[in-house]
Design goal:
Elements (H helix, E strand, L loop, with lengths): L1 H24 L6 H4 L4 H4 L2 H25 L5 H19 L9 H19 L10 H19 L2
Helix pairs in contact: 1-4, 4-5, 4-7, 5-6, 5-7
């Protein structure tokens, strides 16, 4: 139980810290007037979504960490979604299919967190219910959709 809470706190802290880093490095904080334009066209542009994608991934990690602390059986699909989204992003970048906009140290942190998240979700190492096949497939599809939507919009 203590291991689960420590991992949950670490995931939440990493997610919040990385979201602050991404928010400070993006154009979202400097061009707020452009993003308060209430036409839906600006929100579905590729440049907007590539800036928001790291924040979405960080929020998924933070939410998974909070659920790991509070409701460990409900955290598995969220952790699997985070793991699939990040691993697909990194692996596709290694193969040259996509270009990721994460700094190298964030890639290393997210890669290790994604492996740990998938290990927690698919194993019974910290005494929580394993991810079912249905939840695993839906997490894979959701993670793929999040990753693919940012590049093939």
């Amino acid at each position: 139980m203590a291991t689960r809470k420590i991992i949950g706190i670490a995931f939440s802290f990493i997610g919040i810290l990385c979201s602050i880093i991404f928010l400070l490095q993006s154009d979202l904080n400097t061009n707020l007037k452009e993003y308060f334009d209430f036409s839906l066209k600006s929100y579905f542009s590729l440049s907007y979504f590539t800036q928001v994608l790291p924040l979405i991934i960080c929020l998924i990690l933070s939410y998974g960490g909070i659920l790991l602390i509070l409701k460990p059986t409900k955290s598995n699909p969220i952790l699997a979604t985070f793991g699939f989204a990040v691993l697909e992003e990194i692996v596709f970048s290694w193969f040259g299919i996509v270009t990721i906009y994460f700094p190298t140290y964030i890639v290393a942190i997210f890669f290790s967190c994604a492996l740990l998240a998938l290990w927690i979700a698919y194993s019974d190492t910290i005494n929580q219910k394993r991810l079912s096949l249905k939840e695993g497939i839906s997490s894979l599809i959701l993670g793929t959709t999040i990753t693919a939507f940012s590049y093939y919009l």
